[in-house]
Amino acid sequence: MAIQRVEVGERGLVASKNIRKGEKLLFVPPSLVITADSEWSCAEAGKVLKQNSVPDWPLLATYLISEASQMKSSRWRNYISALPRQPYSLLYWTRAELDRYLEASQIRERAIERITDVIGTYDDLRLRIFSNYPHLFPEEVFNIETFKWSFGILFSRLVRLPSMDGRVALVPWADMMNHSCEVDTFLDYDKPSKGVVFTTDRPYEPGEQVYISYGKKSNGELLLSYGFVPKEGTNPSDSVELSLSLEKSDKCYKEKLEALRKYELSTSQCFPIQITGWPVELMAYAYLAVSPPSMSRQFKEMSAVASNKNTTKKDLRYPEIEEQALQFILDACESSLSKYNKFLQSSGSMDLDVTSPKQLNRRLFLKQLAVDLCTSERRILFRTQYILRRRLRDIRSGELRALRLFDGLRKLFN
Ligand SMILES: C[S@@+](CC[C@H](N)C(=O)[O-])C[C@H]1O[C@@H](n2cnc3c(N)ncnc32)[C@H](O)[C@@H]1O
């Protein structure tokens, strides 16, 4: 394989000759892999972080910045100089951009949480360690901008190696491979050959781009960490988060909240919906939300299933409130759909007021990502709306038939 400019993913690995299905490719030895145990060019800085028991992710983020600042003496200088200056993940979107383009999607919340976490991690390191060793960690080098860069690199390139006890690593060269939703193979340490490899799950011809899987992730998760959205309808693992909330006016609000809290859930909860359907946890939450006071004894059981912490009872059925529960999900789905419709309808005329070409390019690029994401999430919601409406129609027409039958029988006996 060779690194080349490619259509999907800018740079990627391309087959230089025929590759068979089941072949082991790459062979990156552990000495060429970056882990939390890698040697630091500035040994003293590494020692300080380890003495302070800094966990793997912040340690690796600091390591990357440290090695990048020691460019000439770092053994990773070629690798680091080939890394993107600005990884595309949502870490690089400003709050205003997230609000403007991702208002309809729950991914906006996830991005805000992630940015807050990165800032919190940096602040913690600065207060606890960097400020005590300014000669090792000067602020001109170790600051929030460089941390956003290094975390962006980690989010988009770090891999977990199952056969190395799940250890996280940057694998130079192998991390030039792009993701395909159709591929089901990933990087791992191969004990017999003592190297990081991946085993192809299909043949490739010379000139074809070779892909791996970054995991079964939704389009939103791919945008969040890797900064791209697969083409609509190509990701079988795609899902959209639907937010459900308890009504404050609910007569049993307090009891329901108590039951939810027992299972670490709150009055507003997100559940992933796929094109193939919704999870049992979402249905359980909907049952809880619509339950009348007479069902208070079931609140705990419903919350347990909604939290996925109940290992004994997986599925729940309450035929007496099924219609209300489905209607409750349909209402949430339609309210979410109206936000997507609003954004997608207005996106065409957005950003025509910008004059600087650089700013315009950035805005058009981010907007296109947001439009792609929102179109794929809306597609799942449309499908869900269709299924819910059909089920409700079936339930209601079944009830109507039963009612007519009952009426007919009553007339017969009167
Ligand atoms: C592990 S790197 C892969 C190498 C990368 N293409 C490069 O030039 O450095 C992950 C990054 O590649 C890009 N990428 C990977 N798969 C992609 C895909 N299917 N479509 C678009 N971009 C992709 C994204 O920018 C992502 O953050």
From TrEMBL:
User: What's an example of a GO molecular-function annotation for this chain?
Assistant: protein-lysine N-methyltransferase activity
Task: Identify the PROSITE patterns for this entry.
Answer: SET (PS50280)
Q: Report the SMART domains cross-referenced here.
A: SET
Domain SET: residue ranges: 1-215
Q: Which Pfam families match?
A: Rubis-subs-bind (PF09273), SET (PF00856)
What PANTHER family does the record tag this protein with?
A: RIBULOSE-1,5-BISPHOSPHATE CARBOXYLASE_OXYGENASE SMALL SUBUNIT N-METHYLTRANSFERASE I-RELATED (PTHR13271:SF123), UNCHARACTERIZED PUTATIVE METHYLTRANSFERASE (PTHR13271)
This one is known as SET domain-containing protein
- Species of the source: Carya illinoinensis
